[in-house]
Amino acid sequence: MKKIAVIPTLLTLGNAVCGFVAIAWASKIGQGQSTFSSEWCFALSGWFIIAAMGFDALDGYVARLSKTASEFGTQLDSLCDAISFGLAPAFLVLKLGPDWSNERLHQALAVIAALYMACTILRLARFNVESKIDPNAGKRFRGLPSPAAAGCIAALAIMRGSITEAHFAALAERWPALQPGLITRGLEVAALLGALVAALLMVSRVPYPHLTKQILRGRKPFSHLVYVIVFAVILILIRELALVLIFWLYALSMPLLNMWVRMLRRVVPPPAPELDRPAPQ
């Protein structure tokens, strides 16, 4: 502890600061005296959680590059992750879901938000223990990683912030049955159920790939670069839904694929063992 790596430590602390700022912006949602609208507060809170993910990725990369990775950095990273990917998304869930006008749903929302924070802390503690036992634990995650789960919540907040009153009016004009109150209520229920699903996936044993290592690291064929560019262009064209699609496809695809594989194993019988045939004389 006499010497610490300055740059990786500052990047890790930047992760925690982004989480703190996300909580500060989320606390302004619904306050009439705030200079910024609730839509802006939703979007900014979500984007600061995304920024925390960037700091979280950079600190480990810089530590490995400079060969300054240490036990101190690992523990500090987990503490900062608990703020940015546990407390900040849980507080944002309270703002995304039903308010006190629906007392029962809001109480359920508070329980789910607390469960989300607890599952994040359990997920981080389990990862620290497993990474000491198995050095290759970072290549494939067991359970949804806490940054990805926080990204699922942040994506919903950013999408909620992008839907302004003008969007509500345009949607109501195009589809009269789709009233603004119905859209808002649907987003609130989606946040409530989404937070519950993300919390349970974090403490599950479902295997998740490390996408950044598989997509960006190492040498890839030229066609791989073309696919990445095309995918990025498509996401830019649908930027309001891009983050929702990225994070929720990642979160839900693995458990669905795991269930599909288990169903196939039950349906398809194992091959019958071959009987020993007498050797030809």
Q: Overview of this structure, please?
A:
The mean pLDDT is 82. The longest helix has 31 residues, at 103-133. This protein has a two-stranded antiparallel ribbon with strand order 1-2. The chain is globular, with a radius of gyration of 22 Å. Helix 3 runs parallel beside helix 5. It has one domain. Helices cover 74% and strands 2% of the residues. It is built from 10 helices and 2 strands, in the order ααααβαααβααα. The protein has helices at residues 6-27, 38-65, 71-96, 103-133, 146-162, 165-174, 180-202, 211-216, 222-237, 239-267, and strands at 140-142, 207-209. By secondary structure, the chain is an all-alpha fold.
Total strand segments: 2
Report the order of strands and helices.
Answer: HHHHEHHHEHHH
How many structural units, i.e. domains?
Answer: 1
User: Helix tally?
Assistant: 10
Helix content: over 70%
Radius of gyration: 22 Å
What overall form do the CA principal axes indicate?
globular
Q: Output mean pLDDT.
A: 82
Poorly predicted parts: none
Distance between the termini: 77 Å
- What percentage of the residues does DSSP assign to strands (E)? under 5%
Structural class: mainly alpha
Largest sheet: 2 strands, antiparallel
Across the major sheet, the strand order is 1-2
